[in-house]
Amino acid sequence: MRSKIVAGNWKMNKNLAETEALLTELAAKLPDTQAEVMVAPTFVNLAAAVRTLDSSVIEVIAQNMHFAESGAYTGEISADMLLNIGIDTVIIGHSERRAYFGETDEILAKKVKAALAKNMRVMFCFGEELDDRKSDNHFKVVESQLKNALFSLEASDWGKIVLAYEPVWAIGTGETASPEQAQEMHAFIRKTITEAYDASIANNVSILYGGSVKPANAVEIFGKPDVDGGLIGGASLVADDFVAIIKAI
Ligand code: G2H
């Protein structure tokens, strides 16, 4: 059975003291849940976050990594550096990385392979832009994002992959995909993976929805059969909101 996951992507928010305070509050308020709960603070606060939390209850994950082992890549972070501080899950392909930092499918494919080579778990993000949806190209775009970054993986790699479908038009905009739109795309993603691999891989991969998930819409979105949880941005920065979203699973 695939896991339910609720992950908080803190993006470039919270200094050290705020990170420790939010994690402490979150740990204290965390409800009993069947979901795996994860948080992705900014790089400089990852080690402190690992020290603050009991990793069996809340897992600290990274927002990004470089594909190279080490070397002259100013400003970058390697898989080994993450593993060394106790982090073994990494978000790859977030739309903000694609849009603002020029991360192409080709770069993302390299990052995915590099993470998997180190036995890390990858939370791979993808999703169409507003123009793609308006022109009815959203399925094609999603299919090509998956194909270019993931479909050269071995079948055995898929146990380490979590998918996060995040339509770009719903990210941080307050606009959310309807539960029906999310379900439709998640079912399409499983069909695409079934065609490329097989139904067991497609049925065992967790597919999260991301894009303006809030306490008010989480129950409906998470209620859809192919939605296995969420990648939460803005609402994960407030403990009570994140807790309410976790309870919605
Ligand atoms: C999408 C999401 C988290 P938000 O980027 O990855 O952010 O919930 O603020 O739309």
Automatic annotation (TrEMBL):
Keyword Cytoplasm on entry: yes
SUPFAM superfamilies: Triosephosphate isomerase (TIM)
PROSITE patterns named in the record: TIM_1, TIM_2
Full protein name: Triosephosphate isomerase
Family: Belongs to the triosephosphate isomerase family.
Keyword Flavoprotein: no
Organism encoding this protein: Zobellia galactanivorans (strain DSM 12802 / CCUG 47099 / CIP 106680 / NCIMB 13871 / Dsij)
Record PANTHER family: TRIOSEPHOSPHATE ISOMERASE
Molecular function via GO: triose-phosphate isomerase activity
GO biological process assignments: gluconeogenesis; glyceraldehyde-3-phosphate biosynthetic process; glycerol catabolic process; glycolytic process
HAMAP family in the record: TIM_B
Residues annotated as binding substrate: 9-11, 172, 212, 233-234
Subunit structure: Homodimer.
Pathway in which this enzyme or protein is active: Carbohydrate biosynthesis; gluconeogenesis; Carbohydrate degradation; glycolysis; D-glyceraldehyde 3-phosphate from glycerone phosphate: step 1/1
Broad enzyme group: isomerase
Known role: Involved in the gluconeogenesis. Catalyzes stereospecifically the conversion of dihydroxyacetone phosphate (DHAP) to D-glyceraldehyde-3-phosphate (G3P).
